[in-house]
Amino acid sequence: MKQPLIECDRLSVDLGGVRVLDGVTLSVGDGDFLGLVGPNGGGKTTLLRVILGLERFSAGRVRVFGGLPGSSPGRIGYVPQRLFFDREFPISVRDLVMMGRLSKKKLFQHYNRLDRELVDEAIHQAGIERLVERRIGDLSGGELQRTLIARALAGEPELLLLDEPTASIDPQMKTTIYDLIERLKERLTIVLVTHDTAIISRYVTKIATLNGTLELHQPDSTSCRPFEWLPGKIPLY
């Protein structure tokens, strides 16, 4: 039996004297597509930060690829909810995607032909070829999110963490991003934080609600659809 990529056992996190996560137990296996839903402030982003090794936990146990969080950065791709940057800073889409290769490089090591080929492939997968020379400050919200997904893919991840990648973008662009994610699930393990509960039902293999504590909802094996909502169990936030 394969070891889960992510294991959380009775995980708790305290921030500023407030318990944000309380006794969270979760397992994400190879090939899973987990949808993580819940209200703002429920701890979804905090959980991703713990998995990445960016947030310390107060109690419990966490393993990522069998090791401590933060010990396998080259195996994880992360797409944040927001990217804070100076919109006048002259960095192009290609340059930003190329930054996804940094986890594979040693200090002061130059990019090589393989790096450029993998960046071109990530750009193609994200469908942003026409944007490569654009400055990131000139991108729309949806274009920027696709660029951030390409940056994550350039690092050749095995696990992809997406923190509300469709927040604050128009419905048409939202659909194209979910179509992209659907293609990626064929070869990646994905954890997706979202408020789009009605949309993700046709994409995910399992879903969890998180509001300090976590409740996991398994798909209905008797249904012909990828995931069957459990009536009265999944709140629409």
Search tags:
single chain; about 240 residues; alpha/beta; Rossmann fold; six-stranded mixed β-sheet; three-stranded antiparallel β-sheet; 9 strands; globular; disordered C terminus
Quick overview of this protein structure:
By secondary structure, the protein is α/β, with parallel strands linked by helices.
By CATH, the topology is: Rossmann fold
Name the CATH homologous superfamily: P-loop containing nucleotide triphosphate hydrolases
Strand composition percent = 15-25%
Taken from the alpha-carbon principal axes, the silhouette is globular
Supply Rg. 18 Å
Low-confidence stretches: 221-237
Number of helices: 6
CATH architecture: 3-Layer(aba) Sandwich
Q: How far from one another are the termini?
A: 36 Å
The CATH class, by name, is: Alpha Beta
**Percent helix among the residues?**
25-40%
SSE pattern, N- to C-terminal? EEEHEEHHHEHEHEE
Mean pLDDT: 87
How many strands in all? 9
Count of the domains = 1
**Broad structural category:** alpha/beta
- Enumerate the strands of the largest sheet in spatial order, edge to edge or round the barrel: 5-6-7-3-8-9
- Main sheet properties: 6 strands, mixed
Provide structural commentary:
By secondary structure, the protein is of the alpha/beta class. It has one domain (6-217): Rossmann fold. The chain is 26% helix and 24% strand. It is built from six helices and nine strands; from the N terminus they run βββαββαααβαβαββ. The chain has helices spanning 44-52, 93-98, 113-126, 141-154, 171-184, 197-200; strands spanning 6-15, 18-28, 33-37, 59-64, 76-79, 159-163, 189-193, 206-211, 213-217. Strands 5-6-7-3-8-9 form a six-stranded mixed beta sheet, with helices on both faces. The chain has a three-stranded antiparallel beta sheet with strand order 2-1-4, covered by helices on one side. A hairpin with a 1-residue loop joins strand 8 and strand 9. Helix 3 (113-126) packs across helix 4 (141-154). The relative contact order is 0.19.
